[in-house]
Amino acid sequence: MDIVRYDPSLKEEWDSFVLRSNNGTMFHLQGFLEYHAPGKFPFHHLLFYKNGELRAVLPGGLDKLMIYESPAGASYGSFVVDDIKFHDTLEIIDSFENYCWTKGIREVYLTSAPFIYQQELSHNLEYALLYRGFVYQRHYISHVIRLNEKDDVLKSFQKTTRNIIRQSFRQNALSIEESDCFDEFYPILVENKQKHGAKPTHTLKELRELSNLLGDRVRLLLVRHKGKAIGGIVTFHCNDAVLLCFYIAMLYEYQHLRPIYRSMYEIITWAKKQGYKFLDTGVSQDTRDENPMTPSLDLIFFKEKFNSRGILRSTFWKKLK
């Protein structure tokens, strides 16, 4: 198997492969990764060919300590493959490990998208990595909502949540709109993150750039009260199977109007109509704790009100030298 390091002339081939793959996401696209300023990340993306046919791609970065990490500058990384057989998966991993030895790479970290992002469910890749000596370095927990066509959205929620949303409609105090007014949403997001001792992953400029670069793949649902923006949700179209809620925020002085409950109902209803299989509400970690795996119990409790379930986002690690 031949391994080729990515250069911009391969962008169309790379992105076309990701879009038709079994487990690729928006975060694996060069069209997404190129929004980063040149030099911000030590990118070292790889393409895997067999008999001239592209069989896998691996976005990632290689730092000065010769540690390879995938993803770099994204939420999900690791190998993107078609719905391939197990022996093909082993061949890809073995060829990558040989490449690492020849380049002097000392350690490898791989964080793939959770299994629900696959078009055809398979643990071939995970098992092959474990078989070849990779171990789990850490786990995060995400909470996802299964979007069953036959289910009534409101009826799937907990009783108190249903009552809150019905009351929201009766009060008619909120308006929900699809918007490109990121400048109105971003201060709300910053305030929310500060409350939990964190910062947004993206700057306002980066969020606008992503929206311009990826078009309909980035969507802002804005909640207004008497014309004023008081909350919203930014979603990423990761692939045809999963819509990801990347940012959820509100102004706490309007908490009594429950803008997040209403916007969650609206985004779930919309995602179901669009044919997504799952809505991923993101990781549920306590960012204030020294242990990155510590769960945020309050956040999990909130997400479970919308009939969500916990799934793992795992990172594999192997020390080579």
Provide a concise account of the structure shown.
With 321 residues, the protein is an alpha+beta fold. Helix content is 32%, strand content 28%.
**What structural category do the secondary elements indicate?**
alpha+beta
Largest sheet: 10 strands, mixed
For CATH, the homologous superfamily of the largest domain is named as Gcn5-related N-acetyltransferase (GNAT)
**Domain module tally:** 2
Q: Helical region count?
A: 9
Straight-line distance between termini: 23 Å
Shape, per Cα inertia axes: elongated
Report Rg: 21 Å
- CATH architectural category of the largest domain: 3-Layer(aba) Sandwich
How many beta strands in the DSSP annotation? 14
Helical fraction equals 25-40%
Model description:
The chain is an alpha+beta fold. The chain has 2 domains: 2-133, Aminopeptidase (3-Layer(aba) Sandwich); 144-312, Aminopeptidase (3-Layer(aba) Sandwich). The chain has helices spanning 11-20, 30-33, 86-103, 124-131, 159-171, 182-195, 204-214, 259-274, 297-304; strands at 2-5, 46-50, 53-58, 61-62, 67-70, 80-81, 107-111, 135-146, 175-179, 218-225, 228-237, 242-250, 278-283, 309-319.
